[in-house]
Amino acid sequence: MKKIMITGACGQIGSELVEKLRKEYGTDNVLATDIRKPTSSSGPFEVLDVMDAERMYELAKQFGADTLMHMAALLSATAEKNPVFAWNLNMGGLMNALETARKLDLQFFTPSSIGAFGPTTPKDNTPQDTLQRPTTMYGVNKVAGELLCDYYYTHFGVDTRGVRFPGLISNVTPPGGGTTDYAVDIYYKAVEEGHYTSYIAEGTYMDMMYMPDALQAIVDLMEADGEKLIHRNAFNITAMSFAPEHIAASIKRVMPTFTIDYDVDVARQTIAESWPNKIDDQAAKDEWQFQAQYDLDAMTADMLEKLRQKNIKHAS
Ligand code: AKB
């Protein structure tokens, strides 16, 4: 993997992935693309609407890409508000990206999500291969995307790879429009106000992961020996599973005055309840030695420290 083009490079994952890959493979070997221009760029950048198949293909060709990482997508809560647009963007963008990969023989990565599961999926230790009948448009897109990636591998030999990400927590670029975003917001509000009102109800468990582990997982999966991969796409991966009261307790261990209360948002709560409590990531561990480094308290310590440093910067 040497010449990598990324779509959705200004998003929550994309913005940090670009920096990680530039460190690993060299600044000029990573082309960042997004529909909006970043305020600053550490290397090559091109504006790209993922619905524009021709421009996507031309940019990848001109850059001499050997890898395409397709990150542009609408998240669960936003997709639910505008399902037709979500279908067009999430599926149209993915189709254009897979076609670009097929025509140029690129290695390919795109993330699926715990959103690919639904209320009839086993909730605890959710197996890698199980029932997938999601009840959200995002989930429908993710299941279709997983199948499409499998199809491009089996029918066209495209080296497609992917993971099912849990909620991702980071202190760099805020997420937008996700159901798991509360687990990011809570840290910002803890530092800014010492209090958080959660839109997700007490007792609602979801899988989560700190961003450095998510980025390392992408690199490790893409570097893994393809011969050893049985699943290729949509590997379950997780680092921790918690409910709002557990993340609050973790913050309290560092900031004893922190408080939480609840004002549940029915739309996002319904989505959360349709997702697993905790997925089983043994296949990722067996096939490409996935291992997360951060547990809840390690993540909390790092998040609070980084956000406090940022605050000091803002204040000065
Ligand atoms: C969301 O909440 O929509 C995402 C996801 C779990 O895919 N963070």
Task: Please tell me about this protein's structure.
- With 316 residues, the protein is α/β, with parallel strands linked by helices.
- The chain is 46% helix and 16% strand.
- It has helices at 12-25, 53-63, 76-81, 83-104, 137-156, 182-193, 211-223, 244-254, 266-274, 282-288, 296-315, and strands spanning 4-7, 30-34, 45-47, 67-70, 107-109, 112-113, 124-126, 160-161, 163-165, 167-169, 195-198, 206-210, 235-236, 240-242, 259-262, 278-279.
- The strands form five sheets. It has a six-stranded parallel beta sheet with strand order 3-2-1-4-5-8, sandwiched between helices. It has a three-stranded parallel beta sheet with strand order 6-9-13.
- α1 crosses α7 (211-223), α2 (53-63) runs parallel beside α4 and α4 (83-104) runs parallel beside α5 (137-156).
- The model is unreliable at 312-316 (pLDDT under 50).
- The structure holds 2-amino-3-ketobutyric acid (AKB).
